[in-house]
Amino acid sequence: MATLTATTAFAQSSVTISGQLDTGYTSVKSGNGSTQEQMNTGVHGASRLRFVGTEDMGGGNKANFWLEMQPNLQTGSTAADLFNRGAWLGLQGGWGELRLGRQATNTIAAVCTIDQHGCYSGVYGGGILFSGTNGTGATGSGWMLANPTRGGTQAPSTANNAQYGAAGALAATAGVDATRYVRAVRYSLPAFVTGLSINATMAYGTVASATAAAAGNSTGLDITYAAGPLAVVFATQKADATAGANQTGELTTLGATYDLGMAKLGAGVQQEKASGTGVAFTKGESFALTATIPLGAFTPYAKFGEHKYSGGTTVGTLTNAKMSNVGVRYAMSKRTFLYGDYVNNGAVVTGTNLKTQYSVGINHSF
Length: 366
What we know:
Layout: H1 2-9, E1 13-30, E2 35-41, E3 48-58, E4 61-69, E5 86-93, E6 96-104, H2 106-115, H3 161-166, E7 180-188, E8 196-203, E9 218-227, E10 230-239, E11 248-259, E12 264-275, E13 283-292, E14 298-310, E15 321-331, E16 336-345, E17 354-365
Antiparallel strand pairs: 1-2, 1-3, 1-17, 3-4, 4-5, 5-6, 6-7, 7-8, 8-9, 9-10, 10-11, 11-12, 12-13, 13-14, 14-15, 15-16, 16-17
């Protein structure tokens, strides 16, 4: 009995089930003047169901895992990659934390801090993250990114999934989710300074190559410092060339938020550099300004920014995105809110690319 008690005390384990469900009505107007109205899911952030486990191994050390899927409230289906929103196993202790598997890129946390809503609003529930995109480099293209696109040659579209998943370390199913690494090893430093967080990632490609740089590997680093009302974020990523292609990309993000009490303000800038034969652009530049104003149960918000390109082979055909996003949340409880949202791309857009979107809906966390 004593042995059993001691073993139990030093091996406490737990698995929790949590997530978020989001659904609503949307009306989308395209550049050609057509309008589509529908009941949608993931309007104000993707719906998700996650299983999170931890084991206390004693001595301050833990084993952790994360499995997160994306249910569709329109059809009841899930993404083809079952745990497309995260699948990793790791160890944690006084020395820091190590995670191995599919996980968020270093850039997404920085962008979603600037966004203030965790990138939940606007088009595709992405906030300032790729709102308005039909693939980087397309007319009415993205706002801010979470992965470099190697000059638009490996843009977040279903036509390039093989480049992201099979040949490179960037996210698989990139047309839906260009915010994650695959085959990634992430190390987080312990919090030796209050409010300081530092994370480094190495993500591996799978195609054999004479040089490691042509295997499609990715590396990243992010640093966050939060003290009182101020939070400052920095992230940098590099995407090496894949086998059979020499395009490379680098992505750098810098921003901050400041809480004034009556309002919280955010601002950020982002730059993407690309090189190689046939890149659509050699430089992409973005900025974003955000504000939230708490008024009891109501929280109005406004977001504005721009994305522009220069250099490359097809810059003359690229339309810079000029995004504005306004809306309001109404908290019905601590875990449920209603929302109304409007997003507009002020650039000249054509065809089926998005011009405006109205949405109203409900979001519940559990």
